[in-house]
Amino acid sequence: MDVLAQEQLRLDAGVVDYVLLAIYFAFVLGIGFLARRSVSTSLDFFLSGRSLPAWVTGLAFIAANLGAIEIIGMSANGAEYGMPTMHYFWIGAVPAMLFLGVVMMPFYYGSKVRSVPEFMLRRFGKPAHLVNGISFALAQVLIAGVNLYLLGSIVNVLLGWELWLSVLVAALIVLSYITLGGLSAAIYNEVLQFFVIVAALLPLTLVGLHEVGGISGLVDRVSASPGGAEQLSAWPGTELTGFTNNILSVVGIVFGLGFVLSFGYWTTNFVEVQRAMASKSMSAAQRTPIIGAFPKLLIPFIVIIPGMIAAVVVQDLAVFKQTGEGAVDYNDALLLLMRDLLPNGILGVALAGLLASFMAGMAANLSSFNTVFTYDIWQSYVVKDRPDDYYLKMGRWVTVGATFGAVGTAFIAAGYENLMDYLQQLFSFFNAPLFATFILGMFWKRMTPTAGWVGLVLGTVSAVAVFALAETGVLNLPGQGASFVGAGVAFVVDIVVSVVVSFATRPKPVTELTGLVYSLTPKASRTASTTGEDAGWYRKPGLLAGIALLITILLNIIFG
């Protein structure tokens, strides 16, 4: 970030703002120290001893995703594309979250696996397990780097420190409480961070709407800005996808984002699934992503709308949108709006909210990375059959190593004008082919162990190939079209290769697939208890999911 950009983004924080930030950090570190007292085994450290209630894991589930990428990336998309960005929530998140809760959590929780790669081990064997473990670990270090870069950028803007120093300080803060309290520290901090984030973004949205003259004023000003009135309706979203044809754009959003990228992320990404696995019962595990779906439906209004407001209120950003030139870009939308509209005191809350979002995202990456690396790579292939205490200590050291890895990858993220482009590209590489392998293996008992890892590898290679063709100009895929197409290609290639290889190789015996394949798992094993703490209509996963789906459909109709 150059000197001019630093000066334009410098926030005029006062004593009150710094006091509020200090109080917030005291709470964060205090939760880490308190959580450490409940950690005595590796299961406590990595999965909170499977003891947490659904409302805690549900809020942590959504807060883990409400990281720097979500807040800054989605506000950047709001500034650049407008309402079509809503698709990342209403098409690209909620349906898959509901599917995870209703259909897939019974398999994850019921099988008592400690991670998603461990489920791959039981279904497909060691090669698929190792491929998934390594690819997941790599993805988490890269994504943690994005969160860390943005966290360091805020410290850089606030205090004027060099970016490298800001990144290191930010990394040490997150590292401290994850190393102390493991997943419990991460989850309870994520619950705190959820409320802090809402307390930060809601006032910013309301002040911003007042500044533009309410909703009608925003409509008028966005209509007159570059991109015009198309930014005010979610469909067909041609600027977002990069397709000029409306039908192709809708297909790209529904299949590329809504099916492949979304289901690939929410149903197989251990960062999210880990929160549900920490629940105290099958019913609580199923309700975790469903509870998270309700705030997920509303978050766009306090993330995307401020981005749209910034694009028409902040002069620096308006010039950038008009000309493509200037010392700021779309990633700065939220910071610029905070700089121009928030008074001292409220600015401190807003800064705490931004820092909370970045820390929640990075902590989620680290807590899932240390579990997968320790259990699925180190214990499985490097150092086997040691006492549990050894793996508990190893998990803490792995967290330290991952943090320094994220420091390195933070500077890769610095090269992207819109970080959501970078993030969606990573998802097309790692999540899309994994979802294809999962969904086929879960519903087709004939799929073989060899098909599990071959399909996964070739699916990933095909997504990387699409990215390379787009980068070199062979394929004209502007916006996030390359990630949508890459995800679709990866999914199709993985499915086709897996089917062909399955017919050429030997499947596992049917007796080894109980609890791993839908048709071979008794209904009783896939059904949550409705007695005791899980009794009551408001605790029925299917009913809650139906209500959330109905609201999703209504929102798409209203804002379509």
UniProtKB/TrEMBL annotation:
Lineage top rank: taxon: Bacteria
Keyword Transmembrane assigned: yes
Keywords: Membrane, Transmembrane, Transmembrane helix
Transmembrane segments: 15-35, 55-76, 88-109, 130-151, 163-184, 191-209, 247-268, 289-314, 346-373, 394-416, 422-444, 451-470, 482-504, 542-559
InterPro entries with a match to the protein in the record: Na/Glc_symporter_sf, Na/solute_symporter
Keyword Membrane: yes
Compartments it resides in: Membrane
Membrane disposition: Multi-pass membrane protein
Pfam families named among the record's database cross-references: SSF
NCBIfam families, per the entry: sss
Family that this chain belongs to: Belongs to the sodium:solute symporter (SSF) (TC 2.A.21) family.
Protein name: Sodium:solute symporter family protein
Annotated source species: Saccharopolyspora cebuensis
